[in-house]
Write a structure and sequence with these properties.
Layout: E1 17-19, H1 65-74, H2 81-93, E2 97-101, H3 107-118, E3 122-126, H4 133-136, E4 138-140, H5 142-154, H6 160-167, E5 173-175, H7 177-180, E6 191-195, H8 202-214, E7 216-219, E8 223-226, E9 232-237, H9 245-249, E10 252-256, H10 261-271, H11 277-290, H12 301-313, H13 321-326, H14 328-331, H15 335-341, H16 344-360
Parallel strand pairs: 2-9, 2-10, 3-6, 6-9
Antiparallel strand pairs: 1-8, 4-5, 7-8
Helix pairs in contact: 1-2, 10-11, 10-12, 11-12, 11-16
Bound molecules: adenosine-5'-triphosphate and magnesium ion.
The site of adenosine-5'-triphosphate has 20 residues, from helix 3, helix 10 and helix 12.
C-alpha cells in the first residue's frame, strides 16, 4: 500500500468517526519533529457528518440453513450441514465465526467463498508471530507528515493548531486491514478474514477483543473509529496453540473436519471437474483410507485436489500401484510418511480400496 498518497476522506467514510479523544502522555509515538506540538481540537460537529446510510438489504444474506448451503455450493464450496448452520447463525447474529481444523480442510476458503457469494470485499489479515498494531490496524505516514511540516515551515507563518489538525487527520492515517474492515463500501460491510490466529502472540489476541466486541478501534491522536455496519468476521486457527477463552466467547465456534467420502467426491467434482469419474472415486477412496494410517501428516482436501489434478495431467483414468508410488509426493509432504506408504503398502491399500468400491457398486 502506498503510504504517501491517501486520498482525502470520502464523504461516505465520515460516519466512522464517533468521537475525538485527547492524546495522552506516552500514548502515541510521533517522530521527534512532531513532539511538542499541542494537540489541536479536532472534534467533528454533527453537521459535518453525512446522513446515516440505511443498512444493506437483509435479502443479501442467506435466510435459512438450506439457503446458506446453496450460497456456498453456488460458489463452489461443498459444506456439510453443521458448517452451514453455524455460518448461517454467525451471519444472522452478527457474531464472528471461529474455525479450527487441520491444514488444508477448507477454513480459509470459507471466507473467500463467502466474500464472492455475498459480493462483498474480502479483507485478509494474515497472522504471524510478532504481528503488531502498525501492521494490523494503522500507522501514521511519518514521511508525509514530515514533508507537510517542512512545506509549512518553508511557506512562512505556521498556524500550529491547524497544522497539527492536518497532520493527525485521515490524510496521514495509513489504514491496515482491521481499520479497513470497519469501513463499509458500496456492497455493504466487508468480509474480514483473520487467518491463522494461532500464529500471533497472546498480546495481539487480547487487542483483538476490543475490535471483535465493539467493532471499533481507538487511534489515540484521531479518535475512535466504529463500524457503521459490523464486518462479517471469519477467524481461522490450525490449533498450534489454544486461543484464549475470552476471544472464543465472542465468536461462534466450528471444528472443520476432514470430509467424508461422499462430500470429498462432491468437492473433487466441483473443483476438478475434468477428472474422470473412476479416477475421482479411487482418489477419494485412497485418500480416505490413508487418513486412517499412522502418518505424521495425513493429506487434507487441498492435497486430494492437487493429486487429482496431477493425475489428470498424467492422463490417468484409474490408479495403479506404480502411478500412486510415483506421485505420492503430491499427497504426502514428509519423507517418513512417504517411506511408510511406498512399496507393498500402496498395493495393499489400493487393493482394499478397490474391493470396497466394487462392493459398493
Ligand atoms: N468443502 C470444500 N469445498 C470446496 N473446496 C474445498 C473445500 N474444502 C477445501 N477445499 C479446497 O481445498 C483447498 C484448501 O483449502 P484452504 O486453503 O481453505 O484450507 P485451510 O483449512 O485454510 O488450510 P491451512 O490450514 O493450511 O491454511 C482450497 O483449494 C479449497 O478450494
Ligand atoms: Mg488457511
Amino acid at each position: 500500500m502506498s503510504v504517501g498518497a491517501i486520498p482525502p476522506r470520502a464523504a461516505s467514510d465520515r460516519s466512522l468517526l464517533t468521537r475525538r479523544l485527547p492524546r495522552e502522555e506516552g500514548e502515541s509515538r510521533p517522530p521527534p519533529a512532531l513532539r511538542g506540538l499541542a494537540p489541536a481540537s479536532l472534534s467533528l460537529t454533527l453537521s459535518e457528518l453525512p446522513p446515516l446510510r440505511s443498512p444493506p438489504a437483509l435479502a443479501a444474506l442467506p435466510q435459512s440453513i438450506d439457503d446458506t448451503l446453496q450460497l456456498l455450493k453456488g460458489a463452489g464450496y461443498v459444506a456439510d450441514r453443521a458448517l452451514a448452520t453455524v455460518l448461517f447463525l454467525s451471519l444472522k447474529l452478527g457474531r464472528p465465526l471461529f474455525l479450527e481444523g487441520e491444514a488444508g480442510v477448507g477454513k480459509t476458503e470459507i471466507a473467500k467463498v463467502l466474500s464472492s457469494a455475498l459480493g462483498r470485499r474480502l479483507i485478509r489479515l494474515q497472522c504471524y508471530e510478532g504481528l503488531d498494531v502498525a501492521s494490523a490496524v494503522y500507522e501514521w505516514n511519518y514521511a508525509g507528515q514530515m514533508m507537510a511540516i517542512r512545506l509549512a515551515e518553508a511557506g512562512g507563518a505556521v498556524d500550529r493548531d491547524r497544522l497539527e489538525g492536518d497532520l493527525f487527520s485521515e490524510r496521514y492515517l495509513v489504514k491496515r486491514p482491521l481499520l479497513q474492515a470497519l469501513e463499509s463500501g458500496e456492497g455493504g460491510a466487508p468480509v474480514l478474514l483473520i487467518d491463522e490466529l494461532d500464529r500471533t502472540d497472546e498480546a495481539f489476541e487480547a487487542f483483538l477483543l476490543e475490535v471483535l466486541s465493539d467493532f471499533q478501534v481507538t487511534v489515540p491522536e484521531f479518535g475512535t473509529v466504529k463500524a457503521a455496519e459490523p464486518p462479517v468476521v471469519i477467524i481461522t486457527s490450525n490449533r498450534t496453540r489454544e486461543i484464549h477463552d475470552a476471544l472464543k466467547r465472542r465468536c461462534l465456534y466450528h471444528w472443520v473436519d476432514y470430509p467424508d467420502a461422499a462430500r470429498e467426491l462432491a468437492i473433487l467434482k466441483s473443483r476438478v471437474p475434468e477428472a474422470p469419474q473412476k479416477l475421482s472415486r479411487e482418489v477419494v477412496a485412497f485418500v480416505q483410507a490413508i487418513r486412517k494410517e499412522e502418518l505424521f501428516k495425513v493429506p487434507g482436501v487441498a492435497e486430494t485436489l492437487d493429486w487429482a489434478s496431477a493425475l489428470v495431467e498424467l492422463d490417468a483414468v484409474a490408479l495403479d500401484p506404480a502411478l500412486v508410488s510415483d506421485t505420492l509426493g503430491v499427497l504426502l509432504k514428509y519423507q517418513d510418511d512417504i517411506q511408510r506408504m511406498q512399496g507393498s503398502k500402496v498395493k495393499q491399500v489400493l487393493d482394499s480400496v478397490r474391493g470396497e468400491l466394487r462392493a459398493a457398486e
